[in-house]
Amino acid sequence: MHGLTNLLMRSSILICVYLAKEIFSGWLTTPTAFFARFMLSLFLCLSYMILNIFFSLAESKIQRKIDSFGLGTIILKTFENKVSGNPKINHLFQSLAYEGVFFPFEHTYVQATLNGGKKANIIIFSDDAIPAFIQLSDDFLNVSSPFFLVSSGYPSGLNISVNIHNFVIEAQVFKPPSSLSHFARDHAALFVSKEYAKNFGNLPTNQGFLFITKTTEKMSLHLESVRILIQSLNFDHYELTSPMDWVGEIKDLKKFRVQAQTLSSILFGLLTIFIFSSVSIFEFRKNLYVISLFKSFGVKPLFIFLRYFVDNFFISLTSLFFSLYIGQLLCEILFKFISIDIVGFEKLVVDSFSFSSNLFLVAVFFVSISISLIPTLLALQKPVGRSLG
Fold first, then answer.
1. Cα angle value 115/120/123 (rounded, 5°)
2. Rounded distance, CA 49 to CA 353, Å?
3. Which of 343, 15, 70, 19 has its CA nearest to residue 210?
4. Which of 59, 103, 304, 346 can pair with 210 through a Cys bridge, CB separation 3.0 to 4.6 Å?
5. What is the per-residue pLDDT for 83?
6. Of 208, 210, 185, 186, which Cα lies nearest the Cα of 72?
């Protein structure tokens, strides 16, 4: 019995070795069949990875916007109003001061001019907004004049000459806290008290407010309340900004990503099934006499089926690893060429070409190749006489 077991093991090993040799010789004798499967798999893998990179970068960009603002932030800027005599913004939304930091302000399209011709947005605040400044940053405790400049382009504490309608002032520079980054994103921001702003002449201004809270449970309610109230006052134009709206954008983007991945996976699978099935049928017919000979010697169809499965699956996995290598190599060359360190979103791009991030492709290959070999499996079930006939 022990000798029979050894004989079966030896024969199984010899059959597997022969089939492996036959796979390799098949690649050499019909290289077009090999490269057709390899290049198709390579193209599909790279396409799928690029699709994932696109969605990952889009989600990352929105997430960075949310992080820069802070989830518990609302910024309202009003513009032309149809109806005069509406209550002041700081009176309308004063109740928000009990929920967090409430900073009412006035903004204007007129810009101040700095040294070298640089521009600065003008933000006008009243005395009742000063406590909000202190809550935004302790640095504002050092403000000693009715105006100051918020900018990341100048050293903190430096005095900068600012020109507004030929009225020149020396404004002290403060680094913008994250809560005020919205005001100093594209240009510096000059904050001026309402009383002192009278020296600049009649500046056309519009109202607005900044609201920041650490508790975000009621943010959706606050945002919707502000939107309903401001619409009821018939403002022609207003700009209401809150990361809460972007959270919905991320959810919609993720939903669309799942749909796109599902559709691409189906197309991926169908192309794999069509090409791999055609090649397998061609090779099966080419080797029909040898296969029939094996079957007549008692070799089980499972061994022969595994020959075709291993052949196709090995090619697909090789193309997957090759596409991962190409992607990582191109990313490293590109980032090195433009002198960018691989951190942040750059690392996100490189990580998209890691094997762990693309395990789904292995599953798609496994299922697609298994389905593509169904005609071969059915042909292997036929008796030797019918196969040769």
1. 140
2. 7
3. 70
4. 103
5. 47
6. 210
Pairing of strands 147-150, 167-174: parallel
Residue 329 one-letter amino acid: L
**Does residue 386 carry a pLDDT above 60?**
no
Residue 74, C-beta contacts closer than 8 angstroms, at least 6 positions apart: 209, 210, 211, 219, 222, 223, 226, 240, 241, 242
State residue 224's pLDDT score: 85
Instruction: Render pLDDT for 218-261 as a digit per residue (tens, 0 to 9).
Output: 888 888 888 888 888 777 688 888 888 788 788 888 888 888 88
The CA-based angle 30-35-38, given to 5 degrees, is 135
The amino acid at residue 147 is F
The alpha helices in the chain, defined as continuous H runs, are 2-29, 31-69, 89-92, 130-136, 219-232, 243-286, 288-296, 301-337, 345-351, 359-372, 374-380, 384-388
Greater confidence, 21 or 326? 326
pLDDT value of residue 2? 54
Tokens 């000798």 belong to 3
Q: What is the distance between the alpha carbons of residues 64 and 250, in angstroms, rounded to a whole number?
A: 11
Give the pair of three-digit tokens for residue 156.
């903190």
The amino acid sitting at 114 is L
Give, in degrees to the nearest 5, the angle at Cα 341 between 337 and 343. 140
Residue 117 has pLDDT above 60, yes or no: yes
- CA gap 235, 81 in Å, rounded: 5
Burial degree of 292 (CB within 10 A; 0-12, 13-18, 19+): middle
Contact 187, 158 (CB under 8 A): no
Q: Is the pLDDT of residue 8 over 60?
A: no
Question: Locate tokens 């002192």: which residue?
Answer: 196
**Which one, of 260, 122, 244, lies nearest residue 193 by Cα?**
122
For residues 102 and 209, give the distance between their C-alpha atoms in angstroms, rounded to a whole number.
Answer: 7
Measured distance CA(161)–CA(233) in Å, rounded: 39
Q: On the CB side of 13, how many CA atoms lie within 13 Å of its CA?
A: 6
Asked if residue 122 lies in contact with residue 147, where contact means CB atoms within 8 angstroms, the answer is no
User: Looking at residue 4, what DSSP letter applies?
Assistant: H
pTM exceeding the 0.85 threshold for the entire prediction: no
φ, ψ (nearest 5 deg) of residue 172? -80, 140
Give the pLDDT band (50/70/90) at residue 100: confident
